[in-house]
Design goal:
homodimer, alpha/beta, Rossmann fold, 7-stranded mixed β-sheet, two-stranded antiparallel ribbon, 9 strands, globular
Chain lengths: 222, 222
């Protein structure tokens, strides 16, 4: 993934959600576009089921939604093709996973290399990987006795919770914390960090080099 | 380790150093006592060799020093006994490891349970354990691609780099960082975090409960 990212126009963002998440990271990105923080617009929200709260919320924000159910596709490749058709039809520049609890098909990850982001509610590469989502993450952090957690915004590659890290924001952990109190504190930082990462991307300021994400201050070639 | 820590007097601190460290954490603790931040005094510095820079520095600060060489002791127990005799003779309340690169004998750790602190230049339990000291730690953090590192002040138990965490202070990691630039940034926070942890201890504000360190605002029993 040595992709150059130089979008000069207002970028077109697709957000992918699944399951029963409230869609608060999705909402933060939509708001970030509305307020002009992000040089872009959320052109599409892709969900796995129509009754997901995030899908309702997207509709209330007048964002186009598309339901692509993995259960209706015989295999990963067919599911991936359906996703790519939706992304292509909307001329999407950037895909943001926001509470998307599934493994994204490899064909999508390969085609959109360097153009898919995710946010994780801990400091990756720790407290990530299979089964580490939602409250499971915060339970593990609290049990570890650590006094610092945080969130990670990263580009998505074919490994789970892997890929070059764009931003990590630390969050204090208090000895009195429960997974719930910690989750609430981290979630706030997820919102602001995700908007900041997409803002930098939308200004063409992120460059992936040797697996690391560098910040560049202009759009000129090095 | 459910030790109650209620020192009401000015605490007497011993600092243990080894090898060729510059003794900057030691110096930070000595300064913290001189300025009154810490309600205590550094009554003894124990080193493993007389030519260590930290030992010279301690002498320049007019702190008593004692050299106890592990090479002159046939086994861990005999080495531990020599350390405990030195600590006892100075009526030490708190032992602070500062660049002490050796495994502290178990008999010392048991006798001074809840009264030995260490600082580690990363966010434990990650980037710790055998072989993870000095530049090795920062090399591993830089290689990980993480954007947050930090330092950890913790009570010492019989496992290496383990024991209840008192404080963790995050430090940003930049993609341009080398192990050296990161080490310098973390070291600054080691100094301030170590002084803060010892300050809290010296005021009787730290309480270990179920393997976690709680902050209490007064010296009264719960």
């Amino acid at each position: 993934m040595n992709t150059e990212i130089h979008p000069m126009h207002k970028i077109r963002i697709a957000i992918m959600v699944s399951g029963h998440g409230r869609g608060s990271n999705m909402q933060a990105l939509i708001n970030g576009c509305h307020t002009g923080m992000i040089n872009g617009e959320v052109a599409l929200v892709i969900g796995t089921r129509s009754d997901a709260p995030a899908i309702q919320r997207a509709k209330e924000s007048s964002v186009d939604t598309r339901i692509i159910s993995p259960n209706r596709h015989p295999d990963d490749n067919s599911y991936g093709q359906a996703i790519m058709e939706a992304l292509d039809s909307k001329k999407i520049d950037l895909v943001c996973l926001a509470g998307f609890m599934r493994y994204l098909p490899s064909c999508v990850v390969r085609k959109y290399a360097g153009k898919i982001m995710n946010v994780h509610p801990a400091l990756l590469p720790f407290f990530g990987g299979k089964g580490m989502y939602g409250e499971h993450v915060h339970q593990a952090v609290v049990a570890s006795g650590m006094r610092v957690s945080g969130c990670t915004v990263h580009f998505v590659d074919e490994d789970y919770d892997n890929g070059p890290i764009i931003l990590q924001t630390p969050v204090p952990v208090y000895p009195e914390d429960t997974p719930e109190t910690l989750a609430a504190r981290v979630l706030e930082k997820e919102h602001s960090s995700y908007v900041e990462a997409v803002r930098l991307y939308s200004l063409g300021m992120l460059k992936i080099k040797n697996g690391k994400v560098f910040l560049c201050n202009d759009n000129s070639e090095e």
